[in-house]
Amino acid sequence: MTTLLLATTGGHLAQLHGLSTRLPADGATVWVTHANEQSVSLLAEQDVEFVPYVGVRSVRGVLRCLPTAHRLWRRRKITRAVSTGSAIALGYLPYLAARGVECHYIESATRVSGPSLTGRVLQWVPGVHLYTQHPRWADRRWRYGGSEFDRYQPVAAARRLGERVRVVVTVGSATDFPFRRLIMPLVQLLAPNGPLHQATGRDVEVLWQTGDTPVDDLRIQPRPFLPARELSAALAEADIVVCHAGTGSALAVLGAGRLPLLVPRLRRYGEAVDDHQRELAAELSRRGLAVCREADEITVDDLLATLDRSVRSIPNPAPFNLRS
């Protein structure tokens, strides 16, 4: 028996990687995802099949998955498939379900109030079991199985600054959506001798993870994409972290024990397909796991407010139970 673990890169892959440790064991495992700095480093010790990227709402990209889905089913003898999306799930789960494979789709924790487009399509596919990570919208189709954010609790433990203020700014790994609107105000706030320096009396050191956001005209030293381990190490050493309100970035910051300042991408600026990041930011703020601000509202006080709390990881989270 072999389980296929399927996700696009970014937050979808980060969630599945965490959830995989909570799934019931069922023989061997093979991962299917796209190759980039995150996936190559995160899955370095796993059995992985790297496949071409499936773009957002790309019908052609979904259809190109079918030959690979057939090959994996036949050669790897796939008996179970689990996916956190996004579009790549449409290229594999319907085909595998039709072949009698036990298929499970876990909606992203980003979807606080209802399923994504991928989820809305898959709920009509026979043989695909559906799960939400938010109990408020569970119903007869969508079962609540737990959430990756249940791993974390806020801790009222103020952190002291050292000789320098170390800041990480990350916009995640989304290749289709730049987020210059987040970078611009931070360039001013974090500049040498800028507002944060003046407020703390310390030099400010910034790691700028900018993805595909165009920043050549800005006076920063960008790192478009970082390997997962390098980013994790930088987050663990950071005093302040500002990131887009994506699930993968939020999980990475929380896993490093830091309280993030989350800034949601918005559809009206071409930064996302919808405003699900605003809902996620509000949810994590409600849990006490983030400070939430719009890009044009960020102040030095907001940056310093993230030092008032730390985040604790809960050992041995509850299993994620799959339907049989």
From TrEMBL:
Domain Glycosyl transferase family 28 C-terminal: residue ranges: 167-316
Gene3D superfamilies per record: Glycogen Phosphorylase B
Keyword RNA-binding: no
Signal peptide boundaries: none
GO molecular function terms attached to this record: hexosyltransferase activity
InterPro entries per the UniProt record, alphabetical: Glyco_trans_28_C
Alphabetical UniProt keywords: Transferase
Source organism, top-level taxon: Bacteria
ATP-binding in keyword set: no
Pfam families linked: Glyco_tran_28_C
Protein's name according to its UniProt entry: Glycosyl transferase
Organism: Gandjariella thermophila
